[in-house]
Specification:
heterodimer; A: mainly alpha; 9 helices; 80% helix; globular; B: alpha/beta; six-stranded mixed sheet; 10 helices; 40% helix
Amino acid sequence: MFAILHDYLALFLVGNWPHGPLGGVAITLVISALGLTVSFPIAVAIGLCLVSPCRALRRTAGGWTRLIRGVPLLMLIFWAYFAVPLVVGAQVSAVTTAVCAIIVYESAFLAQIVRAGLEGLPRGQMEAARSNGLSWLQSMRYVQLPQALANMLPSMVNQFVSIIKATSLAYVIGVPELTYSAAQVNTITLTKPLQTFLVLAAFYFVLCFAISRFAGHLERRIARRRAGLA
Amino acid sequence: MTMLAFEKVHKYYGEHHVLKGIDAVIDRGEVVVVCGPSGSGKSTLIRTVTRLEAIQQGRILFETRDVHARDVRLNQLRARIGFVFQSFNLFQNLSVRQNLILGPTKVLGLSRDEALARAETLLAKVGLAHKIDAMPANLSGGQQQRVAIARALAMKPPLMLFDEPTSALDPEMVQEVLHVMRSLADEGLTMIIVTHEMGFAREVSSRVWFMDQGQLLEDAPPARFFSRPAHERAQRFLQDVLRPSPRELAAAHSAA
């Protein structure tokens, strides 16, 4: 096992780069980070719709998130694989396709986190802001969202963990991410599939565990600050 | 000159009839204290003035404009009516300074410097100039409520509403808040105050409203209200709230 790790470390970490496209852990992290950063503002917008006083907006956003959350990510990836080139009218790389699918998928999940964060605030915050003459949008922007987002930070980081695991599905459309690297190693070594995929599991675990610990750390810090100690 | 008028105001929470035909008028410069047993509709009444609660019948006229009319510019209206809550509701993510300048800059369009000058003056007035950089969570209840009053005043509203401003406070902090409110009354600001502080009502108010079960039973100057309330229900209420507590009785006893 350690021999596999030792011999193919570069393949696991960066794929065939610099001779080929960036792959392995590196591209997994790039896809995840890109997915999270782009889906975040979309999720905030959908989340605002979910709590808005306008019923049509609430209904539409609610229907959309329910639809996306009721569909497997793998299906979205397949769907994006065929749909995105049609929409864009040009060839699109597998990585871009995967990122698009993940953005659509994650923004629906994050939107529900945003909604929960906003609904979890004391009602008096909104009442005070509106009584001060602020519009609904201003009150969201200056008072509620900053509080909700600070409270949501740990959930967001945990969502990042789930995105990292979800990127393994991009393997099926040929994105050279971490799982793809493992499959490559497996083809080369041929006789050691159990060990190879155990190494793969270890990579995912180390990544996700580290990030979860970071989320836990954030959570404790926020709790301390709320208690007025920091 | 009439500042606020209630005309046959009715409100229902589903089947529950919370306000049963309120008719009343408040002139500029008046300080009206609203009292009554809990659940009598006092808080609901003042919350309808800024449309924090809807009404089902009647009209509320603020400066002759119908508050609940469909075409009213709600945010402009609210900017002209200050509201102080029982639970302070300072913006938790913002410092005292930012709490005070948010409304003036975003709603009234003041420059940051103008808003800041206004904030400093008001904080000095409520005795909290040294807390301008503090976060709400690090202030005592009494301090938070005084900041909340300053935040409402920063909009320069001609009318201020107070919804049980001292009910959530420890006893030793009640006076500091009442002191600020008393000075506002002395300056001639028009105020409606829902409170159980009967001593304050007697000294500061120009009129006392007594509410029970959604009705405005009594509307009288404090001298008359406290000496000879017209309604039997108000007499009983006054006996209950003015009856000295066991501790006061014991203190009086040992003194004698």
